[in-house]
Design goal:
Layout lengths: L23 E3 L2 E6 L36 H26 L4 H19 L4 H29 L4 H7 L1 H11 L2 H21 L2
Helix pairs in contact: 1-2, 1-3, 2-3, 2-6, 3-4, 3-5, 3-6, 4-5
């Protein structure tokens, strides 16, 4: 008996390829496809994110704010504040016929705040603010003396203050007492510290 050889099997045209996942459409859009190795599901709302790697802070770190340093603008603002504060301080003295401590604090605060906020952290500004507040308190006290003198003499405030300034200064010297100089110190201290704190 002869044995017939089995018919040769035809090799398959291509070896069976390993099955790989096919890209899936994203949100029903067949043209926007998700990479094959991406997570098949989007994170659910309210899901807790994984903890950050050690040493990595939560959230983005913002860049430090650059320090302001504009001496000219700070000095200009301090001078303007000193002029306004002198007028207000003098009007308070002229109306009440008394020097008031909180008004001197207000002068220093206003001058220091204006210098620090607009000028920044320049070390000249606190010193300049203290000096300007001293001048502001002095002029304010002279304005108050002129207002009081205008009520007691036939001269107007402007005549007394601008044409007879030496008389106003003499009246200020006669009325000055230790408390007057305490107000100077208060205003200078508040202006100095206020300019430093406002610049932070």
């Amino acid at each position: 008996m002869s044995q017939s050889a089995p018919p040769p099997q035809q090799p398959s045209a291509q070896p069976q390829a390993e099955t790989q996942p096919q890209p899936q459409p994203v949100d029903g859009n067949p043209f926007a496809q998700q990479p094959a190795d991406a997570a098949p599901y989007a994170p659910q709302p309210g899901a807790v994110p994984p903890p950050p790697a050690p040493g990595v802070p939560y959230g983005a770190v913002s860049a430090p704010v650059p320090a302001r340093n504009n001496v000219g603008l700070g000095l200009l603002a301090a001078v303007a504040a000193a002029v306004v504060a002198a007028g207000v301080y003098g009007a308070i003295i002229g109306l009440t016929k008394h020097e008031i401590g909180w008004a001197a604090v207000g002068v220093g605060f206003l001058v220091g705040l204006a210098a620090g906020r607009l000028g920044g952290r320049n070390p000249v500004l606190p010193v300049a603010s203290a000096a300007l507040s001293l001048g502001s308190v002095y002029i304010g006290q002279l304005v108050g003396e002129a207002m009081i003198g205008a009520k007691e003499t036939p001269l107007s405030f402007s005549e007394l203050f601008f044409q007879h300034f030496d008389v106003v200064q003499a009246a200020w010297k006669a009325d000055a007492d230790p408390l007057t100089f305490v107000f100077f110190a208060i205003a200078a201290y508040v202006a100095f510290t206020g300019a430093r704190k406002a610049a932070l």
